[in-house]
TrEMBL record:
It catalyses: Hydrolysis of terminal, non-reducing beta-D-glucosyl residues with release of beta-D-glucose. The keyword Hydrolase applies. Keywords: Carbohydrate metabolism, Cellulose degradation, Glycosidase, Hydrolase, Polysaccharide degradation. This is Beta-glucosidase. It is an enzyme of class 3 (hydrolase). It comes from Arthrobacter flavus. GO terms for molecular function: beta-glucosidase activity. It holds the Pfam family Glyco_hydro_1. Belongs to the glycosyl hydrolase 1 family. InterPro entries: GH, Glyco_hydro_1, Glyco_hydro_1_beta-glucosidase.
């Protein structure tokens, strides 16, 4: 074992999403996504911004990959924008979009960096949303066609595939309570969206494996759940929320079954499940992606709250600029819980983990030889890597870690107000300025001696 108990060969990387960094939304034949439409109503975005420019990665990807090469990361988790490939979500591929991603993938390979590609990171073409989006089972067929295009065009360049990113967040925030694109308030009836996302995942696994042997997995957001009080009611609500957040998406993929407790949530009905769906969803995986940011405490909701459980604060715990509690031990907890619940758990990669901290009074904007002062992010990174090392020591097969994210980006409904980057993005000029955490992560990667 080397630094933090991570074995030689452990994969280090960073993670991004096309909608958050590319910009160029009106270039190269790209169509409109649900996030473009959502951002047009400025009250939906905290700073009234949009992703029209984002990080301008569409034009500056070579510069960003030079940074990535300097970091020493062996892998780069990226997503491909569905509207850039199929502007209306259906039909023939857009040649300009195909050419762009060939250039981008080649630029990574030229630098010795493995492309790990997420097929769907929440940027559904708006034309498909107009036809019902993920409520419409036909969207699953459209996703299979889209996957087939990516497979045939880029299959020889992609090191690993991730089908769908965080379906629990896309379902819950975007479709159940309307605080992200597409902004729907379906509450429990959003289960149809969850099911169709998982069915799209399973269909994509089958589509990729028709001609490719590269590894395939899914990316789920996981959070250990505990009750806010010692009451029987809160204990029961904690179990219910655990099944909603964790079991609703891990269970079908890893066991072919939804947790039966889900039917206790108003609006959820298993009638949307067709014969054969669960067999498709539970296709064996080569790896399982875990996104972890924070644990969750839940308790009885106040009157008129849209769901029966409500999040509760952790008292006396440091928080990020998002207000998320910093509890690295909970990463070890959720990995242990997943292994206990699913003994057949495939090899795990931490596909996202990071923290939002601005360059404010605590860290400042002072430059040094090791970049912008960045103490809190360095502590977060080190503590969570140590938790990964503990998980490996406990017998859990964790094989890699992707830090969220390479550089400050357009953080969905938060606009540009939350800073997750190892690299600062100067708002006025888009200059890339490495923080001290960038250099510390590079040191950690070098200390393992992990080969590409």
């Amino acid at each position: 074992m080397t630094s933090f108990g991570l074995p030689p060969g452990f994969v280090f990387g960073t993670a991004t999403a096309a909608a958050q960094i590319e910009g160029g939304v009106h270039e190269g034949g790209r169509g409109e996504s649900i996030w473009d439409a959502y951002a047009r109503t400025h009250k939906n975005i905290l700073d009234a911004s949009s992703a029209a420019i984002a990080c301008d990665h569409y034009h500056r990807y070579a510069e960003d990959f030079d940074l990535l090469q300097g970091l020493g990361g062996q892998a780069y988790r990226m997503s491909i924008a569905w509207p850039r490939i199929q502007p209306l979500g259906r039909g023939p591929a857009n040649p300009e979009g195909i050419a762009f991603y060939h250039r981008l993938l080649d630029a990574l390979l030229d630098r010795g960096i493995q492309p790990w590609v997420t097929i769907y990171h929440w940027d559904l073409p708006q034309a498909l949303q107009n036809a019902g989006g993920w409520q419409n089972r036909d969207t699953v067929d459209a996703f299979a066609d889209y996957t087939r295009i990516l497979r045939d065009e880029f299959g020889d360049k992609v090191a690993a595939w991730m089908t769908v990113n965080e379906p629990v967040v896309h379902t819950g925030i975007g479709h159940a309570i309307g605080r992200a694109a597409p902004g729907l308030m379906m509450l429990g009836s959003a289960f149809v969206v969850a099911h169709h996302l998982l069915l799209a995942h399973g269909t994509a696994v089958h589509t990729l494996r028709e001609t490719l042997s590269s590894p395939v997995g899914i990316v789920n957001n996981h959070s250990p759940v505990q009750p806010a009080t010692g009451s029987d009611r809160d204990a029961r609500l904690a179990v219910l929320y655990d099944r909603y957040h964790n079991g609703q998406f891990a269970g079908p993929v890893l066991t072919g079954r939804y947790p039966p407790e889900l039917e206790e949530v108003d609006g959820i009905s298993f009638e949307v499940i067709h014969d054969g769906d669960m067999e498709i969803i539970s296709a064996p995986l080569d790896f399982y992606g875990v996104n972890y940011y924070f644990p969750t405490r839940v308790g009885a909701a106040p009157p008129f709250y849209p769901v029966p459980f409500a999040p509760k604060k952790f008292v006396g715990v440091p928080v990020t600029d998002f207000g998320w509690p910093v509890m690295p031990a909970s990463l070890l907890t959720i990995l242990k819980q997943l292994k206990a619940a699913y003994p057949q758990l495939p090899p795990v990669y931490i596909t996202e983990n990071g923290c939002a901290y601005d360059d404010g009074p605590q860290d400042g904007l002072q430059r040094s030889g090791s970049g912008l002062q960045d103490t809190r992010r360095i502590e977060f990174l080190e503590q969570h890597l140590a938790a990964v090392g503990e998980a490996i020591a406990a017998g859990i097969d964790v094989r890699g870690y992707f830090h969220w994210t390479l550089l400050d980006n357009w953080e969905w409904q938060e606009g540009y107000t939350k800073k997750f980057g190892l690299v600062r993005l100067e708002p006025a000029t888009l200059e890339r300025i490495p923080r001290a955490s960038f250099h510390r992560y590079a040191e950690i990667i070098r200390s393992t001696g992990s080969p590409p």
